Amino acid sequence: MTRPFTYPSFILLLCVLPASVYGQSDETVDLETVSIQGDQTSNDRISSQKLLKVPGAGNDPLRAIESLPGVVFSNGNRSEPAVRGSSPEDNAYIVDFLPVGYIFHLDSSSILNDNVVEGFTLEAAAFGSEYNNATGAVIDADSRLPYQDRDQLVVDLSLLKAGIFVENQVTDDQAFYLSARQSLFQYYIENFLDDEDFEFTTVPEFYDYQGKYSWRISDTETVSAQIIGARDKGGLLFADDSDQVLQDPGLEGGLRFEAFFNSQGIVWDKFYASGLSHTLGISQLEEKFAFGIGFNNRIDVKVNSYNLRSQFSCPIHPHHELQWGLEYDEAHIGYKGRFDAPPCDEFEPDCRIVDGTETITGSGKPIVRTWYANLADVWSVTPAWTLIPGVLVSTDDYTDQDFVEPKLNSRWEFHRNWAFTSGYGQYHILPDNFGSYTPEFGNPELKQPTADHYEIGLEQSLSDDFVLGELFWKVELYYKTLEDIIIGRPPQDPLYSDLSVEQYNSLPRYTNDANGKAWGAELFVNKNLTDQWYGWLSLAYSRTERKDQLTGERFRYNYDQPVVVNAVANYQYNRDWQIGFKWRFQSGQLVTPLEGAVQDEDNPALYNPIYGNLNSERLPAYHKLDVRADRTFIFQRWEMDFYAEILNLYGRSNVVDYEYEGADYSNREEVTDLPTIVSFGIKARL
Predict the structure, then answer these.
(1) Number of domains in the chain
(2) Is residue 1 domain-resident?
């Protein structure tokens, strides 16, 4: 049987062709390879060691992502970042080439152990064809290979969590490490709460683990088996006379939440003498999500995903390097639940359980199969200009949609140490909230949301300047359009006031009737004055809008925070102590103002709130200063790192929301972020 001649086999053939095909001698082939990401120590990147020292991050380099331009954590109310006007749900997360369930715990700390994080890439927009299933940003984290020349035991302890890390060499070419961490705040959080309105039924807590076993077959070939997993849970019960229950009786019975995932995978990396290199991965991902509101509303979801992913790179000409890959993902989704709540979304400020008009029960076990193929050409048009055209082709058998999405990135070094960059790409995503696509709880006819990204940038490096030291700065402008955003069915009153309840309930609970756009400008400056001093500054100005096509309403999006400023600096005070600070300023969070409340005609004890225009009021500006001090103690047989942090040093009362008292919403109170807090941690390496 003749083997099909597909485009991957054609590219592989190019990689093994003799040098004479390209007009070179048979003895030596000198191919120019261009790296898109650049060197990990270049001025436009911040090393993981520096990110570990960011005040307020608690030795978590991924949590320090907040100090980079374009990133918003919504004043700490969400555990995942919103990047350049996109929702946190629009992001994709990858760890060591393989997909993971989630990457941030409920307290916004990451699931990765700082002892193994080698670095991460934040692709804020216009990312390449090797990434898929994301319309927002991509966070691609890498953990290092186990050390071959040392064994170590590391014990971490802070006010928030405790962890243990073990690393051992097995043979001359094989080694492993394993880490496990557990939150600690569940043991004392209730001592800091004096609220008669609720009590914890499950005190919030989390754990995570990570492990890797590597076999260095040769200097150019490595096989790694890796495991990673995490769990978060919590629950609380409201008092019968609490404001929450008086305003929404559907909350009687409390809230319950649990999420966990476990992943196992094998990754094979190899570099061939011809210049061909590849990374091949196979993984299994188990996820569970359970959520409950009140006595009767609950949803349980269990997903088992099987993923095959490959990425190849090969120089086929002195001026061309082809990059391509194939990916197959098969998700077995099991769900069951009961809900009498309305179809809530970010477009509706009043989404009380008591406003539900129907009771929905359902279960199912759909299987979603998705195929991806990507291709890009790293084209050295001139020694100073690199152009990367690419394309991502994908299809799935659930929505039956096919996508052919072009990408284009360019970097032109028009003058010594000066460069002009630009990027464009089309993207789509099948949201993790699969419930909106199910027949019972959503609409199986939904399309996948899409986005177009545009960005241009100007950057300069002054690393050769003796007086200034290493200095790099970059200005970027971006523009995003978003289509087919999923929104819930609007309330019956007033849009559907002429429909009966039965007619209203027959409408799709979710539709693709929203769109949006985001644009902004960002400045990033990274500077190393001396070996004792380094820091960076990021400034961002942006605007984010959404439009509800059903109502015609256009409004600023929840994560619209026009001005964000981050200033980070660390100073090596002496041989023992390092001191740092981080100051952050951002525009206040948007809220929808409450204009009053009217008594319900059928239930006199219940008041229905009357809201103004969506997201038409902005809270006061949010800013705070965090400081940190680090010291390493070296003993005869072991050493210990100690750090102390003061969060919100000058005690700014940052308003992050409003809450209302009584059934009639008669009094508004400010909800503020954390006051001044002192934290510390130790890491003992034995």
Answers:
(1) 1
(2) no
**pLDDT digits 0-9 by tens, 306-349:** 999 999 999 999 999 999 999 999 999 999 999 898 888 888 88
Compute CA 499 distance to the chain's CA centroid, rounded to the nearest angstrom: 41
Query: Which three-class secondary structure state does DSSP give residue 15?
Result: helix
Instruction: Categorise residue 108: left if φ over 0, alpha if ψ from -120 to 50, beta otherwise.
Output: left
Burial bucket for residue 370 (CB in 10 Å: 0-12, 13-18, 19+): buried
Tokens 């992943």 map to which residue? 263
Query: What does the pLDDT average to over 149-175?
Result: 93
Which of 204, 202, 197 shows the shortest CA–CA distance to 244? 197
Contact (Cβ atoms closer than 8 angstroms) between residue 355 and residue 376 = no
Q: Which of 29-43, 254-268, 396-410 has the lowest mean pLDDT?
A: 29-43
Closest CA to 73 of 578, 673, 638: 673
Under DSSP, is residue 440 helix (H, G, I), strand (E, B) or coil?
A: coil
> Residues with Cβ < 8 Å from 265, sequence gap 6 or more?
96, 98, 225, 226, 227, 281, 282, 283, 284, 307
Task: Provide φ and ψ at 104, rounded to 5°.
Answer: -125, 135
Cβ(387)–Cβ(407) below 8 Å: no
SS3 track for 619-647: CCCEEEEEEEEEEEEECCCCEEEEEEEEE
- Nearest by Cα to 488 from 450, 435, 451: 435
| Percentage of residues of the chain with pLDDT beyond 70 | 90
Token pair of 539, please? Answer: 């400034």
Q: 543 is in which domain, residue-wise? A: 7-685
In eight-state DSSP terms, residue 359 is -
CATH of the domain at 360: 2.40.170.20
Kindly report, residue by residue over 653-682, the tens digit of the pLDDT. Answer: 999 999 999 999 999 999 998 899 998 999
Q: Which residues of 371-402 are buried (b: 16+ CB within 10 A; e: fewer)?
A: ebbbbbbbbbeeeeebbbebbbebebebbeee
CB neighbours of residue 251 within 10 Å: 22
Q: Decide if 437 is inside a domain.
A: yes
Element at 10 (helix H, strand E): helix 7-16
Sign of the CA dihedral with 118 first, then 122, 128, and 129 last: positive
Q: Answer positive or negative: Cα dihedral of 85, 88, 90, 94.
A: positive
Question: Does a structural domain hold residue 506?
Answer: yes
Q: Which tokens is 467 given? A: 């007086």
Question: Is residue 545 in a domain?
Answer: yes
Question: Mean pLDDT over all residues of the chain?
Answer: 87
